[in-house]
Write a structure and sequence with these properties.
583 residues; 31 helices; 6 strands; 64% helix; elongated
């Protein structure tokens, strides 16, 4: 254009400046700025906003502010304020964005929905929730809360700040909810682990005849994974097929994860095999599925297949294969992949990789080597690393090393009740009552309470929740009667000793009743036909008492139990568990 002798004008520059911003070409943008000045177009509102936006998107926010301050007209134009506010937000300049908004109000410049949409996202951290709430109030005062985009933006802000209850109040107050509104609330619940709320909201969404998209279904599948809601997950898969979303890789990866975490490994593998293109995320999901079910050999085979297919593993893929090696006790394979991370793939192992290796060495009884590995880590060991060592010490009854691991882990995670229970159980194995009392005193002094144990089991499309000592289920009488009959039967058949009958470490420590997984198993035995596999999802680690109970009952009643606890799957069949009594 310049070579032909034509002169650019106020209509030309915004397009050229927008292109510089999109391509991140600040030098070209600065040259265009020179042409703007030469052409005398710097006072044109659209040119001004384009310049501010260009500098902001090129991370030159100070230059954007100079453009704003240099032109007196910009101080009275909403579009210029909006451009700079958005620039501050995208560059995470929180205080400057808020200050500019306050100045805007003082100058009497009108605020519109674009202003709010540029400003609200800067309040997406919990520390900025107060400012976000003030912006919400301001939106109501200015009548901007009726704008669906502003409402959705506020909803997302509350979710990101962790204020899910406030997000739900806002959600309920929105009269015309579009798909984005539903997705924001469903994703918010899913991100905060409120799986039951997700499924309830999804059912409500269907009643309102709002068609879900891939974002909706990923959130729902994530919640099905959390709860073990297999039948609902199957319904979602049918919805995916009906919606023509079969080729969506995010949904397929979510399906693999859902089926694997619901105990249906064959279904997870079928989804994986049917995928036309498999990314490293897909391979990681299926490898992790086999790993958590204790099928480490198959996980390793899949990892090798992935390498042969030319897929380069990332950090998450190595976590999956190392975890699989750990669960299956494949020490040599684990070290081979751990060493290959840095030497072959130039990946720096993180704490999550070291925790797998510590667990692997712990399973092999090599506790001193596990401790030496921790001391040679190139990154600072986190709670999971020391926790893996503490768990291994409990299994191998090494009280001295357990005390060292406990001291380190509570420095990092002083309120994690699981570590206190592990140390108490270690003392119990060593008949060290003084140690148990010390743990109790620590818990009382720090006002720590164990997270309530809960178990989920799905029956006829409905998820049944059981808490430890639960007596709120409609079949409570029958469930406890069944448990008593099973206990009496086991005493008679297996001549159980006093240690088994008294070994309920968690109950003694925390004062709870019958553990939730036992209640779930009794419910399943009452309500399912012989030959039906029983799948139970538990939020905490299975204790030794319940683990032995499951093994014995699986043999006594000739049923298969699949229990997913906080760390892995346990497959009980014929009196044997797939974890080989190490978990």
């Amino acid at each position: 254009m310049l070579r032909s002798g034509a002169s650019p004008n106020a209509f030309t520059f915004p397009f050229a400046l927008k292109s510089c911003a999109s391509l991140s070409l600040p030098a070209s943008g600065a040259q265009l700025h020179g042409h703007v000045l030469k052409a005398g177009c710097e006072a044109e509102p659209f040119v001004l906003t384009s310049l501010i936006s260009m500098y902001s998107q090129c991370s030159l926010i100070e230059d954007a502010r100079k453009v704003f301050d240099h032109c007196p007209q910009s101080r009275h134009l909403t579009v210029c304020y909006n451009a700079l506010v958005s620039g501050y937000t995208s560059n995470s300049w929180f205080s400057d964005a808020i200050s500019l908004f306050c100045r805007m109000r003082e100058m009497g410049v009108s605020v519109n929905s674009v202003t709010m949409l540029g400003l609200i996202p800067v309040c997406s951290l919990p520390v900025h929730l107060g400012a976000g709430t003030c912006l919400h109030c301001c939106s109501i005062k200015l009548g901007l809360d009726c704008d669906s985009s502003v409402g959705n933006c506020l909803l997302t802000m509350y979710v990101k700040c962790g204020s899910v209850d406030d997000a739900r109040v806002l959600f309920d107050s929105i009269s015309c909810k579009d798909l984005i509104t539903w997705n924001a609330m469903i994703s918010g619940y899913a991100q905060h682990g409120l799986a039951s709320n997700v499924l309830d909201l999804y059912q409500e969404m269907k009643l309102c005849r709002i068609g879900p998209d891939s974002v909706t279904l990923v959130g729902v599948l994530s919640s099905c994974s959390h709860l073990g809601a297999y039948h609902i997950g199957c319904q979602v898969e049918r919805q995916i097929e009906l919606s023509g979303l079969n080729s969506n890789p995010f949904l397929n990866n979510a399906l693999i994860n859902m089926y694997a975490r619901c105990g249906k490994l064959a279904k997870a593998r079928a989804v994986f095999d049917a995928m036309p293109e498999k990314t490293v995320v897909s391979w990681t999901a299926v490898i992790g599925g086999y790993g958590m079910h204790g099928q480490g050999e198959l996980a390793v085979e899949l990892f090798e297949e992935m390498l042969q297919a030319g897929i380069r593993p990332d950090g998450a893929a190595f976590v999956s294969v190392l975890s699989a090696c750990s669960h299956a006790g494949l020490t040599d394979e684990g070290f081979k992949y751990f060493n290959a991370m840095e030497k072959k793939y130039l990946l720096q192992p993180g704490p999550e990789h070291y925790s797998c290796m510590v667990d692997l060495l712990g399973r092999a009884g090599q506790l001193q080597k596990a401790l030496d590995l921790i001391y040679t880590m190139r990154v600072h060991p986190d709670g999971a690393v020391w926790g893996a060592l503490l768990g291994a010490c409990k299994i191998h009854k090494n009280v001295e090393l357990a005390e060292l691991a406990f001291e380190r882990v509570i420095e990092l995670e002083p309120t994690n009740i699981g570590y206190y229970v592990l140390l108490s159980n270690t003392y119990n194995e060593a008949n060290n009552m003084d140690g148990i009392l010390r743990v109790r005193m620590m818990m009382r002094e720090r006002k720590l309470k164990k997270e309530p144990g809960c178990s989920y089991i799905e029956h006829r499309g409905k998820v049944h929740l059981f808490l430890a000592g639960d007596r709120g289920h409609p079949q409570t009488k029958e469930i406890y009667r069944m448990l008593k009959e099973l206990e009496d039967w086991l005493k008679e058949i297996y001549n159980l000793d006093k240690n088994y009958l008294e070994r309920r470490d968690d109950e003694r420590l925390c004062g709870t009743g019958v553990h939730s997984e036992k209640l779930a198993i009794a419910f399943a035995l009452l309500n399912t036909k012989h030959g039906t596999e029983i799948v139970v999802i538990k939020n905490l680690r299975v204790c030794e008492d319940c683990h032995l109970f499951m093994k014995l009952v699986s043999e006594a009643v000739n049923r298969q139990f699949v229990i997913r606890d906080a760390t892995r799957f346990h497959h009980f069949d014929g009196g044997v568990c797939s974890c080989k009594d190490y978990w």
